[in-house]
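Ligand-bound model needed. pyridoxal-5'-phosphate.
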Amino acid sequence: MNLFMPRIEISLSQIQENTQFLADFHMGKGVSLMGVTKAVLGEPSVAKAMIQGGVKFIADSRIENILRMKNAGISIPFVLLRTPLSQAESIVENVDISLNTEMETLKKLSYHAKTQNKTHQVIIMVELGDLREGVLLSDLPQFIRETLSLSHITITGIGCNLACYGGIIPDDKNMQELSELVDSLEREFQMNLEIISGGNSANYEWFKSCQNVGRINNIRLGESILLGCETVSRKAIPGLHTGAFQLVAEVIESKKKPSLPFGEIGQDAFGNTPSFQDIGIHRRIIIALGKQDATPTSLHFDNKLKLLGSSSDHIIMDSKCDSIKVGDEVRASLDYGGLLSTMTSPFIRKHFTNCNGYAAI
Ligand SMILES: *Cc1c(COP(=O)(O)O)cnc(C)c1O
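Prediction:
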């Protein structure tokens, strides 16, 4: 059978095994997992594999992805990682818990929750140095006080997010700070914070080495489940599969050609003036994939292939293999950026392998 190209092969059993491994690893210290599906656009089969692997929540940054999973019949608490003011009504309607940092948004969520005769649960994100989302510690008591005054909002938890913008590494110091903060908020406001969500795939090394997780009882994992690596130094996590996603693309030209373009050099398709190294006549292949699908450096091909350049829909490579011919398949593994963009490309078909009884959608 000829399978469609380009395609992304997704091993659901490897995703399930990765999830199971991480769920067991974290549960050993009393920490539950949220499985983060944004990199796969809320692909329902992937969410199911995560749920079978033991996540207690599914989290995504886009409401469209959450709707896609709900429409596919997935029922588990859904968490929205990013909360736009303009989507408040739909968030209250479709999401169980949202992460929040802005009073205006919380007010609107409360308003819609009241209209819909519901209580909306929120996790308040605090700023611990990475400078992405988070309420500054100095503003936090007032922020909590105001949130508690909203009639249709329940503060379900506190969270933080590191290693995303500022590259700040989760460590004993900032994690302990989060735990102490939880203790002091509970004391000050006589409240019980149920979910203390300490971070993402970047928390792995801290978590592995820490003796005491403190109050942290939840972690939100995307990349480590999907690609099997932590995200501070992008090292593979022992015991996890790193090849659950494989990109397969088609060779559309394979010829021996000179390595130096001939004629006068102006700009390439993207406005750059290219320069070239003369390595003589060599085998060059073109694959039917381009910048419109992914940044080519985020795709890691077999080491017989060396990236020479790319345009919107062609990737040109130096091939050390002479037998490679038109119509052949070439395979690439993906980094996080590659996963994001290839999963987003409408031109790349998703193909599920090792389904193990999952209904692949
Ligand atoms: C994307 C995201 C995550 C998951 O991050 P990974 O590095 O993929 O584990 C966790 N929390 C928030 C708020 C996110 O936006």
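Residues 172-189 form the longest helix (18 residues).
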